[in-house]
Design goal:
The protein is an alpha/beta fold. 56% of the residues lie in helices and 10% in strands.
Length: 466
């Protein structure tokens, strides 16, 4: 009749997708109003029904249905659909959707699993799930590997589809862990590491404060606190930490000063944006990736890197060109997007070598190092955007030096995609602080386990998480 029928869906929500698959196969797309939900509308509907609403939502006049199965049943009745004739819907229900529900339930089970006969709180269960090597710490790699499980656990806890950053989910899970166990040092350690990766400096100082209250001699917290204090010119605190480190472990104090000296040396060197003139035959070029569009076309930052790389490639026609980057923040691998663009702009594909496994800059260099060694590269022109160049140079030198690879890194800046001077300066503050963090990572003085291995000291949990 004249009933107004609307379906509200959420992007990426598998329950919404289930309803949309039904609408498409039942040929109801033109008979029903289909709209993406907004936070404001979701809040309004929640008030109308006097409970928290979640997508998908079917609205018929002033009435609402929230469950996907109920929505499909209702629309089947209204439009007299013969569901026995549907083929795609059951395939989706028994395939992708079933797998999603199983994964969801499995993560919920893990969040409430028993350990030695005792029920674990959700935060502790999450911590144990991520700690794959059972060393009592959740490393950055373990955190990265567990981001999807973290996201699903957040959904299991919330009871509806969560559409937001997986990093925010991880931070929320850490907060749950700390609330359950306020004296559990590993909770603050994980919060500290997360804050360094997300460049949340306020949270870093807060988390490291709590950690050092629980253990004033924690090497990891002291080293990171020292370099961040230096980065933000908190010199009195920096000097106090160095003095304390020299009293309890001279090796850690010395490596902290090495990190600071290396970063300061590079950051006091002018940035070069002209292709250098080098009298050497064993020259290679390394272009650092950044996200492309989903179709592989370069975004402004990547385009700037590629244009400068093209200049260097034409200046040194016998050079090998390494392009790096996986599909980190888009659906198209960065290295493939770079290779395609360079080939379209006249570079022979035989000169281009791709590295597509690394998830960050440190990983780029670790994976490129064996390739440079095989090709006997003596000089490496490193290309990336201006604000990223100094941090990238520091990491390249550290990784290659640690691998005993005798190659000279020659930094070459591409134009910055950040054009506003104030925004550029803010980014440089972040890059400077991140330079200390990443050099510590490259030298393996960043994770708690790094200090255990180097210092032969047990930094494992001071108490169990339970």
């Amino acid at each position: 009749g004249n009933m107004s029928i609307s379906v509200y869906y959420g992007v990426g929500c598998p329950f919404s997708t289930l309803v949309l698959v039904f609408l498409a196969e039942a040929q109801l797309l033109e008979k029903v109003s289909i709209m993406e939900i907004t936070p404001e509308l979701l809040q309004t509907i929640s008030k109308d029904i006097d409970k928290k609403a979640s997508v998908p939502i079917l609205q018929i006049g002033q009435q609402y249905l929230l469950e996907s199965a109920d929505i499909i049943d209702k629309l089947t009745t209204i439009f007299n659909i013969d569901t026995t004739m549907l083929k795609v819907l059951p395939m989706y229900q028994q395939g992708v959707h079933k797998d999603y529900l199983f994964m969801h339930e499995e993560n919920a089970r893990l969040a409430a699993r028993t350990d030695s006969g005792e029920m674990l709180e959700p935060g502790c269960a999450w911590f144990r799930v991520l700690d794959k090597d059972v060393d009592g710490h959740v490393s950055l790699d373990e955190l990265l590997d567990g981001l999807q499980a973290t996201h699903l656990l957040a959904e299991a806890r919330a009871g509806y589809h969560v559409s937001r950053s997986k990093w925010q989910d991880a931070m929320d899970q850490v907060n749950v862990l700390i609330e359950e166990n306020p004296d559990f040092i590993e909770g603050y350690r994980l919060q500290m590491v997360l804050s360094t990766i997300s460049d949340n400096f306020v949270l870093f100082f807060k988390a490291s404060d709590y950690l050092l209250k629980l253990n004033p001699d924690d090497y990891q917290a002291l080293l990171l606190r020292a370099v961040y204090s230096k980065s933000f010119q908190k010199m009195e605190e920096f000097n106090e930490i160095i003095q304390h480190l020299q009293e309890i472990n001279e090796e850690i104090a010395n490596i902290t000063l090495v990190i600071i000296d290396h970063v300061d040396r590079i950051w006091n060197t002018p940035i070069n944006d002209q292709v250098p003139k080098i009298d050497n035959q064993n020259i290679s070029i390394l272009a650092l990736g950044s996200p492309s569009n989903d179709d592989g076309s370069p975004r402004p930052r990547l385009l700037a890197t590629l244009e400068r790389t093209l200049e260097a490639a034409n200046a040194y026609p016998n050079s090998i060109i390494y392009v790096t980057g996986a599909a980190v923040s888009s659906n198209f691998p960065e290295a493939l997007a770079m290779k395609r663009w360079l080939a379209q702009n006249g570079i022979n594909q035989s000169r281009i070598v791709t590295e597509m496994k690394a998830r960050d800059t440190v990983g780029n260099y670790v994976n490129i190092e064996p390739m440079l060694r095989v090709n006997n590269s003596e000089k490496l022109i490193l290309v990336t955007v201006r604000y990223h160049l100094r941090r990238s140079t520091i990491l390249a030198e550290a990784v290659f030096q640690k691998a005993k690879l005798p190659v000279e890194v020659i930094p070459l800046a591409a134009e910055s995609d950040i054009t506003d001077p104030e925004d550029f300066n803010k980014r440089m503050v972040v890059e400077h602080a991140a330079s200390y963090r990443d050099l510590a990572r490259a030298l393996h003085f960043y994770e708690a386990s790094d200090f255990e291995k180097r210092c032969h000291r047990n930094l494992k949990m001071y108490q169990r998480c339970n």
